[in-house]
Specification:
The chain has 451 residues and is α+β, with helices and mostly antiparallel strands. Helices cover 49% and strands 18% of the residues. Helix 3 runs antiparallel to helix 4, helix 13 crosses helix 15 and helix 15 packs antiparallel against helix 17.
Length: 451
Amino acid sequence: MTLAPDHPTAAREIAAKLEAGKLDDGAPSARSLWADRLRNAAVILLVAGLVLAAMAVFGDLPVPRALIAFACIVCAALVPWRLRGVDIVVPSTLTANPVEAPAVAAIVSGVPDPTVLLDRAGRVIHLNAAAAQLAPALRKGELAQFALRSPEIVTALREAIATVETRRVSVQDRAPVERWMELTITPVPVPTAFGGKDSCMLMSFHDQTPLRRIEEMRADFVANASHELRTPLAALSGFIDTLQGPARDDPRARERFLGIMHAQATRMARLIDDLLSLSRVELSAHVRPDTRIDLVPIIRQVADGLEVLAKERGVTIATDLPQAAAIVAGDREELLRLFENLIENALKYGASGGRVEVSLAADAPASEYRVTVRDFGPGIPPEHLPRLTERFYRVSVGDSRAQGGTGLGLSLVKHILNRHRGRLVIDSTLGEGAAFTACLPRAQPLSDAKS
């Protein structure tokens, strides 16, 4: 309930508050302001009065002048000077480092290559997303030498800071996959907050991996082609000479030789296809796929597609797959090739067991999916297990070529898993079959990936 201003009680309350120096809303009156200023300046006025009185009594200062001086001091004390509590506005150009401006951060973020801007001490000022992905230990305001522990990088950075000259160095990173980077450290002159000049260090990493991969692919292709294609080419050339010569008029020999030539041509086509697939995977091994793929339908598709081969070999394919989706970050075509090679190898080399089992399990502690292809054939001797994923390595050369193998299947499996940041586990016992397990990390949930 509020009272009107003309009410006697309200009038008395307002008058009392005016005498006390404050209104209802707590705003100070003029009298209270003068009283507060006098109280704040009491010590100064007291000291000034004593000094002036002493000078008037013991000195040559006349009393009227002393009184006038004291009155001036009192007036100065009562003037509402407010230096305390007043926000002093300082231009932002004098308080903020120009290099830390949002515009500079936007420029660094827009560079496609991994880029880091450092101060003269080597502390990180800005870095873009590519640099954060390349070196997760980089932090703003911290020394880059502690995050980039490569001796070549640290040496080049120290030399660039000491000499204020551009430095270039090639860096090779072997984990998790082999990569080649060309680092360029460029001194950048920048203005300081007080109009001077300073130098920052702009570090940019240029990925040389595709060029190196192409060079290696060219060299490997020449070596592999000369090694593996020589046998089928020699066979084709020999049979052509035979058909053009002694077997020209022999229908039975012609049919037999044409069949062998067809098998050799088919083997050569598969060999070239595997070489090209392997080269493509190696070329992009440093780029991790980011498409969300469900493994369950892919495994079912591969198993259904190999039913014809299974019936020809007298083998049954048994699948044990979960109802729920098994999502990984991957490349669909490469994953199809991965499981096709594993199941096809089991059908070819473990056919004597009569059964191939394909299962998918989720390994919760390791946050990965494990796809196991198990056969019940003769097994693999333990001394061959460490070398099974090498190019053109065969446990039995004759058996492999008789089955139409190229010696590149497991090597392709290994490189596909490396690109997907997975791993291959091989377990075999003589007389009991072999189990090949492809371990693939789970994809992050959509909410975590967006954040």
